[in-house]
Predict the 3D structure of the following.
Amino acid sequence: MSDSPDSMKAEFDTVAAWTADVVAGLAPAYRIPAGCRGSGSPGALHWLLDHLAPEAEDIFLDCGAGVGGPAAFAARETGVRPLLTDPEPGACRAASVLFGLAALQAGTQLPIATGSIRAGWSLGVLCTVNDQAAYLAEIRRVLGPEARFGMIVYCAMHPGDLRLERPEGNNFLTVEALDELLERASLRVLTSGWTDHFAAFPADWEDVMATVQTELERLHGDDPRWQTAEVQSSRMGSLLAAGEIRGRMLVLRST
C-alpha cells in the first residue's frame, strides 16, 4: 500500500479529497451512503458485523479505510469506536472531516500495539497491496486473543491472466492462493461468503452516490486525475460484471 502508481494515487488520494469536499455539503444522514462508494453494500456490511460481533465501545480497526463510510456505518450500527488506517493522506483527512474519525496514515506497517485489537475489517484492500503476505502478517500481529477480523477480498475466479484489463496496481488472488496466504499468516477462516449474494445498494443509497458522482464530474471532469480514476473504476466494474473477479467475504481468527 506504499509507492502507489499515479493511477491509484488519483483514485484513492486525490478523488478522496474531492469527495470529502462534496460530501461535506450533504446532510449528515447522507454522508455514510456517500462515503461507502466502492465498498460493500449495507447487506454485506451487516453480514460481517453480525459475524464479527463487536461490543459497544470496542476499538474497531479499519485498515485501508478510504474516506471512512464503512467505519462510520459500523459505529452507527454497533457503537464501536473506529480506528482507521490508510496510506493516502487525502483519505485520512476526508474521514476526519466527514465523520470525525481518528485516521492514521499508514500502509503495510501499522502503528498499533501488538495484540491490542479484538475486532476490525479491511474491505477490498488486499488486491491493492504490494506485499500481500506482509500485510496479512501485520493484521495477525495486532489481533488479540479471540479477536475476529473481517475482509472483503476480490478474487480471480480462474488461474492465469484475466481476459479484461485489470485496474493498474491491482493483483487478484485466486481463492486457493488466498487461502494459502491466510494459512501462512496464521489466520483461520471461520466463515465466508460472496458479496454478490447480497442485494445491491438500496435505492436511497444509490441516489446519494449518483448525486456525489454527478457533482464530482461537474467540478473535476476535465481533470486528468479524475479521468484516470474513472478508468480504474470502470475496469473494476467490468471485471465484476463479467464474473472474472468476485468479492469474497471472510471472517478470520488468529490461530
